[in-house]
Automatic annotation (TrEMBL):
GO molecular function list: phosphatidylinositol binding
Cited Gene3D superfamilies: Phox-like domain
Annotated source species: Stentor coeruleus
Organism taxonomic ancestry: Eukaryota, Sar, Alveolata, Ciliophora, Postciliodesmatophora
InterPro entries: PX_dom (IPR001683), PX_dom_sf (IPR036871)
Keywords: Membrane, Transmembrane, Transmembrane helix
Residues annotated as domain PX: 204-491, 492-626
Protein name: PX domain-containing protein
Residues that span the membrane, as ranges: 6-24, 44-63, 75-98, 119-138, 150-169
Iron recorded as keyword: no
Amino acid sequence: MVFYIVIHTVFTAWSSYFTIYSILRIIKHWNDGKERVRTSGGRLIVKIAATVACAVIQLIHIVDFFPKDYSQSDLISRTIYFSISGLSWVFSAILVYFDYSRRLKSQWRGQRLYWIIELINNIILISFNLYSGIYTFTGSELYQFDIIQIFAYCLSILICLLLTFYSIFLPNDFTMITPDVYLRLKKSSMLFDDTGNESTDERISIKASISGYKIKQVSASSIVHYKITVTINALKYTISRSLFDFEELDKTLREKFPKNLYPNLNFPNFHVEYFRKLSPDERGVELNKYLVGVVCQDFMTPDLLNFLQIEGDYRDILMLQHSQMAEERYNIHETPKRATSSTFSYYTQAITTGEIEKSNHPQVYQWMIRISFPSYRNDEYTGETDYYLHTEIESLGFEKLKAFKFKDFCDFHKNLKKSISPATPVKFPSMNYTKSLKKNDKEAIEYRKTQLEYYFSQILNDPSYLTKESLEFIGCDADVNQVLNLTYTPTYKLCHEVTWENDISDDSSTFIVYSMGISKLTRNSVFEVEWKISKRFREFDGLHEKLQMRHSSPLLKNYLLHYGKIPKDTNIPALPSLPSKFWTPLSTLAEIEERKKNLEVYMKELLSNPAVICSYAFREFIGDKD
C-alpha cells in the first residue's frame, strides 16, 4: 500500500498548490475590474455548479470510510487528501466567480491546468483501486460502500471532462473585444463639447441635475434624499442621493486630486456644515450647483461614475477619455500599475434605463396607410384619456382624425386575434406598464402614443393583419384589395456576402454585428437600389419570431393566392430555419464564422420567400423605406 500513500501525497501537494495559488490570485486582483458590468453568466453557472459538485464528491469519499479495512497510515493519507482536495475545489468555485467578476483571463498555471490534472487524478485513483482489489463487493455494507465510491469517482470524471473542455476551448466567461475597437475608441472624440452644448452623435454628453427630493424618516431622524436626473445622450434615468452621499463623493475626489498635485483643477464649493443649516429646497439649489461643477471631464473617475450609476460602454469610454485628458493636461507619466484585467478588453452589458423604457422605434415605416397620434385629451371628471388617431391613404384621397379610448384599442386587438387565428398579432401596448397613466402623466401618455403608433403601423401595413374590420375601425370604407394594390412586391437579393465585426452601439452594449448588402429592383425595373444593413443575432431572432407569428394567418394565404404569388391549392412557403442559438456568448472564430455562413443562407431564403418580403417586420428589418 506504499504506492497508495505516494499517489495521495502527490495529489495532495497539487491541491495544496492550487489552494495557495487561488488565495494569492484573489489578494492580487482584489481591486481589479470591479467597475465592470456583469455579463450573461450561463457558462459561469455551469462552472460554479460543477466545481461545487466536485467539492461535495470529495467529502463523500471520506464520510464513510469505516467499513473498509484501511491501515492507520492509509486512513490518514486518504483523509488528508480528500479534505484538501475538497477545499481546493471550493476555492476553484470561488475563483471561477472571482475571475468572472474581475474580468480576469483564466491562467494555465492555475484554474485551467487544475481541472485537467484533476481529471487525470480521478482516472488514476479509480484505476488503481480497481486494479489493487480494494473494492471487494462482499457483504451488504461493503458492497454499498464500494458502489458509492465508484459512483463518486465516475461522476467526478464526467464533471472534470466538462471542465477540461471549458479549460481548453472556453476558458473565459466573456467575449473579447478586438484590438481595433480599442484603437478606434482611442482615436474618436466621444466626450463633451468644450462649449457645454449638446454633443454630436459621436460624442457623449452628460448632464445631471436635481429635480426634487423626498424626506424619509429613519428611527428618530429625517433624511433628505434628492432625486437626480442623469442624461447621457438620449438616455435618461433618475437616481437618489443623500447629503451624506455627496459628502463621501467630495471627500473621495479631493483625496484623489490633492491641491498640491493639481493646482489648476477647479473644485466646486462644498461646505457640508453650511449645507446642513439650509432648508431642503435651499440645499438642493446648492447641491445642484455642485453637480454642475463636478460632472465634467476632469472628475470622470470610477467614484463619480458610481455616484451617477453610469455603467457599460459609456463608463469605459468616459474613463478612457478622462485618463487621456489627465495625461495630456497634467503631464502624468507615472500611473499606478494595474493587474492584467484591462478595462477595455471585455464584454459588458447595456446600461439600464430609467423608470419608463423609451421607444426603440425612432422610424415607423408606413407604406399603405400612414398612422400618427397627433394629440390627446384628458377628461377631468373620469380621468380617462382620449387618443386622436390620424390615418391617411393618399392615393385614395382618404384622411381621418378620430378619437378613441384605450379600451377601444384593446377591443380592436381582441377581435383581430380572432380574425387572423391561428396566427398571432404583433405585441399590443401593455395596459399596466406604469401607474403614471392614472395620474395623467404626460411622459407616460406620450410613451403610450408612440407604442400605439408602432402597433397600428404594423397592423395596417401588413397583408397578414389588414382586415375589412381594421379599415372600418379607422373609418375607411375602401376594400382591402384596394389598399393592398397601393403597394408592390419588390425583388430583393444579397449583393454582398455577409461579414461580421465587433462594434459598439449607442445603446451601450458590445456585441458581434453581421453586415450585408441588400439590393432591390425598383418598381419600373429600371435600376437597382443598394444599401447596407448591420444587425445583431438577437435582431435576427426577433425577426424570425415575428415572421412565425404571422405566417399561419389565413389573410396572408389569401393575399398570396389573389396576387399569384403561389399556385392554387398550395400552402404558404415554409420559413427557413434560423441558425441555432448558443446559450453562451460566441468566443471562437470558428463559431462566429459558422453562424455568419448560416445567416447568409437564412437571408437568401428569406429574400426569395413571397410570404416574407411582403411583411412589415421584414421590410422594417432590412430598412426598406419605399
